[in-house]
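Worked example

This section walks through a single chain of length 318. The input is the sequence exactly as stored; nothing has been trimmed or padded.
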Amino acid sequence: MPDNRQLEIDSGVGLTALMVAAARAIETHRPDSLAADPYAEHFVRASAASAAWPTRPQDVPGGDANPLWGRLGRYFGLRTRVLDDFLLRAAKAGIRQVVLLGAGLDSRALRLGWPRGQVVYEIDRPGVLAFKEHVLASLAVEPSSPVRGVPAARRRVVAADVGDDWAGALLAAGFDANAPTAWLAEGLLLYLDPEVERRLQRTIDVLSAEGSVLAFEAKLGLGSPAVRANPVYAATKAQIGVDLLALFDRKPRPDSIGLLRGRGWSTTVRTPFDFTRQHGRGPLPEPDDALATNRWVFADKPRQSHVLGVSVPTFRDC
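Given that input, the structure is written out below as tokens.
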């Protein structure tokens, strides 16, 4: 395996992609699973850094009481389901191109039931995508054919850092800026420098035709010292060597919601706990909660005549 492929997935933010994959694998095998990802376990096992991590509920020390694989893992499972539903609603409404920003080990292009003609662009650093392609190739996964009975989208991989000029690479891969797009930035903005986040939002707006939709995860701050001492952070560092507090960018966060609204987008902000209550599964608030400042933001760029409703999930939708 090339060195850059291993280094980018086995260290820093790359490790968080493996962490989410392990959580999705565990969620897949729960009897009350909210989301199924048959590829997640293969990604985890393929990296030396994560090969020994649990991928099934029975392998988790302490079960759901484990702060990392229990509470935080269920958070990732819930987030996966909510954002799966967001993208599928967009596709049902007629949006035929999806862009996954900082795609990591996301397998939505392969595992979701897409309508005919759907295209999914995956943007991430070259080493992360090389690792991902290596694992998928070992599973004999064809990028544009049905897998396990699920109609796959046309999957287009775009090797680019979201902190650089990724727009040019996306356009070169066939992206149509004149067609509505469903954008997803899952677990990405938390790690970005504020200026990079502002530039990302501006670029999304410029590339978005009317009728485009966007979902992203934001963190309103790291909270008090008591919140930063939450067991989720300590367990993640102790069990898998990922120091989330060190990875989060600590500069004041930009007002991405205000920026979008100023450019004419309509936005709705939800807490993860809203969706826990709707699905009956997932984390609920606790004292000094590390998840209390997490927000899931859904936005749409209205057409001149009407606003698409697919991007603002109501409780009936979820």
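What to look for: The domain at 3-300 is CATH 3.40.50.150 (Rossmann fold).
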